[in-house]
Write a structure and sequence with these properties.
14 helices
C-alpha cells in the first residue's frame, strides 16, 4: 500500500504545480515569487488583488470542476461497465444546458443561471432513472440506452434554442455550451461537493473493485449490487450536476482522466478515485491557464482547449499501451 501512495503524492505535486502556474500566468504575467509572497500575506499591492480576487477563485473552481468530472467519470465507468462512459453519457449535461440556455434567453445571469443549470441536471437525472427503471428493476445496458436517447432529445432542444436565439445572446450561449469558467462567482459548493464525493466513494472502493469484475462475481462475494448501483448513479449525477452548474459543459476530462490513470496505476479504486480527482483537477487547471493566456486578453472556451490538448495525449498513451 505504501508503494501505491507514491502516485498520489506525485499527483498532489502536479496539482500544486498546476495551481502555481494558474496563479502566475494570465493577461499580465506574475512571477512565482510574487505569487508566493501574496499567498503568505506579505504583498498587499496590485499583485495581491490580481492573484487573490481574480485568479485564485477561478483556479479553485477549475480544480474542483475537473476533479468532480474525473471522479464522476470513474464512477460511471464502473456503474455502466463501459470504458466509453463519461459524466455526460446519461444526458445530465443536456438537461443542465437546456435550462441554462432558457435562463440566458430570459436575461437571467449570475447565481440564478447556476441554479437553473443545477435544476436542469437534476430533472434529467430523475427523468433518466425513472424511464430506465420503468415498472421493474433496471440494468446497466437499459440505463445507458435510456441516457443516450434522453441526451439526444436534449441535444435537439439545444439546437432549437440556438436557432431561435437573438445574435446578442448567442455568443454567451455558445461559450456556456463549450465550457467557461469566467462566470463562476463562488467555489464553496464545488469544494464541499468534492469532499463529500470522496468521503462517500472511498469507502466503496473495495466493492467497486469487485463489481468491476462482473455483477455475478460481486453478488457471489456478498456485494449489494442493486443498492451499490443506485448509490453510484446518484453520487455521479450529483458530482456532474455541480460541475456543469459551475462551468458549463466541459468534455473530455471525465472520460480521459480515469483512463490515463488506469494505464498508469491500474484498476484499484482505492488509488484510482482520489488519483482521478487530483489528475482531473490538474488537467482542467492547465487547460484553463492555456485558455486565458493563448490569445490574451481574449479568452478561449476551456472546453475547446481540453479537447485540443487532451485528444492527442490520450491517443498517444493508448497506442503506447497497446504496443506494450
Amino acid at each position: 500500500m505504501k508503494r501505491a501512495l507514491i502516485p498520489l503524492f506525485s499527483l498532489a505535486a502536479l496539482a500544486l504545480a498546476s495551481g502555481l502556474l494558474a496563479l502566475s500566468f494570465g493577461s499580465v504575467a506574475t512571477s512565482w515569487q510574487s505569487v508566493w509572497q501574496v499567498l503568505l500575506g506579505n504583498d498587499h499591492g496590485l499583485s495581491s488583488d490580481l492573484v487573490l480576487q481574480l485568479r485564485l477563485p477561478r483556479a479553485i473552481n477549475a480544480f474542483t470542476t475537473g476533479a468532480l468530472l474525473a471522479l464522476a467519470g470513474a464512477l460511471m465507468q464502473v456503474l455502466l461497465r463501459n470504458p466509453l462512459a463519461d459524466p455526460y453519457v446519461l444526458g445530465i449535461s443536456g438537461g443542465a444546458a437546456v435550462a441554462a440556455l432558457c435562463a440566458i434567453l430570459l436575461g437571467i445571469g449570475g447565481l440564478w443561471l447556476n441554479a437553473a443549470a443545477f435544476a436542469g441536471a437534476l430533472i434529467s437525472m430523475f427523468l433518466v432513472f425513472g424511464l430506465a427503471r420503468g415498472a421493474g428493476a433496471w440494468s446497466s445496458p437499459r440505463l445507458l440506452l435510456t441516457g443516450v436517447i434522453v441526451a439526444a432529445g436534449w441535444g435537439a432542444l439545444i439546437g432549437f434554442l440556438l436557432t431561435v436565439s437573438p445574435d446578442a445572446q448567442l455568443r454567451g450561449m455558445l461559450f456556456w455550451l463549450m465550457g467557461d469558467l469566467g462566470g463562476a462567482e463562488s467555489y464553496g459548493l464545488g469544494v464541499f461537493t468534492l469532499v463529500l464525493g470522496l468521503a462517500l466513494s472511498l469507502p466503496l472502493a473495495r466493492n467497486l473493485n469487485v463489481m468491476a469484475r462482473g455483477e455475478l462475481s460481486a453478488r457471489a462475494l456478498g456485494v449489494p449490487v442493486a443498492r451499490l448501483r443506485l448509490g453510484l448513479y446518484g453520487l455521479a449525477s450529483l458530482l456532474t450536476a455541480v460541475a456543469v452548474m459551475t462551468a458549463g459543459s466541459i468534455g473530455f476530462i471525465g472520460l480521459v482522466a480515469p483512463h490515463i490513470l488506469r494505464l498508469a496505476v491500474g484498476n484499484d479504486h482505492r488509488i484510482l478515485l482520489p488519483g482521478a480527482a487530483l489528475f482531473g483537477g490538474s488537467l482542467l487547471l492547465l487547460a484553463d491557464t492555456v485558455a486565458r493566456t493563448a490569445l490574451a486578453p481574449q479568452q478561449l472556451p476551456v472546453g475547446v482547449v481540453t479537447a485540443l490538448l487532451g485528444v492527442p495525449l490520450f491517443l498517444y498513451l493508448l497506442s503506447r499501451a497497446e504496443r506494450r
